[in-house]
# Entry
Amino acid sequence: MTIVHHKKHPLVQQRRRLLHAGLASAALIGLTRKSFGADDKILIGYWPIASGLPLYVGLERGLFKEAGLAVEGAKFASAQQVAEAMISGRIHGSANGTASAALALAEITSPNLFKIICSNPSNRKLVLDEFVVPKDSPVKGIAELAGKKVCSGPGIQNVTLAKIILEKNGIANPQVTELPIGQHVPALAAAQVDAAYTLEPTGTAGRLKGLTRVLEPGVIAKYVLGDPDAPWFGGSASITTAFMKDKPELAKKYVAAYAKAVEWVRKNPDESRTHLDGFTAIEEALAKEVPLSGFTLYNEFMPSDVDYFQKFFDVFTDRKIFNKKLDVKSLLYTG
# Structure
């Protein structure tokens, strides 16, 4: 269920085992939404992409520990799995990078499931999303992918967005294959697919290995939101309302500590990148090359941010993926 990557140093290996053991432990003891165990352990699900940095930093730099919190990260193969674990009560929340649409679908399935504590805006400057092709591919633009084999990350958000982008580039009835994000570079290198709609650090990892190149970055802001500089809030950190109800003071302490981790990332972007190693496919020595998305805390949203977030959700409502309209404002944490 979880996939764990370790650094070579034995002390770091031991620490990583402790950080990632939470999900297996939760499954074994059969946690329910209203029973998180006798201790105050906080389990946070994450998908191994660059925008999960605040969680990685909070864990490895001891920011949660300094706040008196026992936080553990549980790695999942997809954002949908993170959302499902929140519904079942096996984890207390999600890290940044967890697909906002996957969380929204979980909210529709299980009303009043969570509150967003931070979201990660991206666009052509704050790069997270991109189309990637093999290094020697003759393709020079997305419109040239007509009739080509295209893959995306797993989950309805990734597949839907990939199709929209292809449609916006004149490709009718596009077909997209789901692949775990860690398989995108190998699949491109092996010519199993011709292009991938993917998320960082995939593009950077493939480029540094000499296997792939970025065809176009920041594609969601441009093709889905209609403005290449618009903030696309594609992933969000959250906590479950069950956690907030059962342990309100602990939940508040966690939100405050997470905010400190976000601030640390903002002030130390280069050093922050070193924490991608072990949590994502990028190695520490290459981490400085990875572009970073932004981070917007629940109390930092401007009206225009909410409007763009709502526009993103409305795309899924219009396509009948959401069976009802969700109000973004109602999903934001209020303290």
Residues 107 and 113 are 6 Å apart (CA to CA). Confidence is low (pLDDT under 50) at residues 1-38.
